[in-house]
Design a protein that fits this description.
Blueprint: E1 8-10, E2 21-27, H1 34-48, E3 52-58, H2 64-70, E4 74-77, H3 83-90, E5 98-101, H4 114-121, E6 126-136, H5 143-161, E7 173-176, H6 177-183, H7 192-202, E8 207-214, H8 224-228, H9 232-247, H10 249-268, E9 276-278, E10 281-283, H11 285-312, H12 316-325, H13 328-355, H14 362-400, E11 412-413
Parallel strand pairs: 1-11, 2-3, 2-5, 3-4, 6-8
Antiparallel strand pairs: 1-4, 5-7, 6-7, 9-10
Helix pairs in contact: 1-4, 7-9, 9-10, 10-11, 11-14, 13-14
Amino acid sequence: MVSRREATLLVPENDVEAPEVSIVIPALDEELTISDFVRWCHEGLAKAGVVGEILIVDSSTDATTALALAGGARVLQVPKRGLGRAYIDALPHIRGRYVILGDADCTYDFREVAPFVEQMRQGFEFVMGTRFKGYIEPGSMPFLHRYLGTPVTTWILNRLYSSRFSDIHCGMRGITLDALRRMDLRSQSWEYASEMVLKSVHMSLRTTEVPVRFLEDREGRVSHHRRLGWFSPWQAAWINLRAMFVYGADFFLVKPGIALLAAGLLLTLPLTFGELTIGPITFSLHWSIAGVALAVLGLQSVYLGTLARMFYETDAAIRRRWLLRFRYNRAVAGSAVLFVVGVALTSSLVWEYLAHDLSLTSDVLKGVSYRAVTGVLLMIMGFMTFTFTLVVHAYDLISAQPSRSSPTSATPTP
């Protein structure tokens, strides 16, 4: 029995040296299928003409470990911590240049790994399997998954990220080891699948798809979703959607924020010196105040979306480009100019208030309120830009510090 903090690497007697491909598979109580699955992997590697290793990341309580070892697979015994965490634990032990991921239940046909290897050899860094362009055996995919869940979530992701995937939940996929390391996966559970797809887009990985065969569960095997109950598929769908929205926060913030900011400035700035009539519409003070609300909401959205991009950006060079857009001295100086101009425009209202015995008549307001509204907007924008600059550069300091965490270690056991 594996303790909660141990990770033990078990090496088969016929272990391979210097593999080009690593097939990395999480497993949980798969004694019914694991022997056939490992045999399929050996057959697939032989057909592809590559030297490859099979690494089973196992947290089982049945005979999965013994059967996988007997079939010639490496087994990394880890605590039961979630599907995504299994890949995180496996990363330090992957030896191949190319990595193929999937399930140990024989629902994906690993006798056909050659297309993945061929595409990665041609320079693709991320290769998604697609069941919808391949073969789906009758009875292998529930009706709601096939015709609602997978198509809808795939459509949502493609809209959010301008991608062209056809099956984002396909579990069989290939990725180069270098790209997998740079992804820095964080998800502990089912949402790892969406995180991987989303980060492949953020990282601008060279991506393609290959058709795969999806087969029905073996007789006597109960899928993990069914083991966990009827709510499990819905929970998996929700956490995958959550990953899409969190990693796509900028989709809901940056472009809509720019639109709101532009609309707000168009309403407020032209009214700085009084109301404006265009055709049958007279733009009055109320329009100017509405413009302030839109502009502030828009600027906040743009800044929050920019921070989100910096937080999930894995390429340090891209993060540096964002910093260059907000150089500290230039941004602080610009913030100060906005704030000072805003104070100057607002001061006329304060002066009139003091000059009229702490009261403002409608006649006085008519002349200075428009300028004051614009001044307040500029003051808010200046302060927001200043604080945003501080947060950006504080994040830069933190991200530049070396990580205190270390990867899971395991000692090979023959």
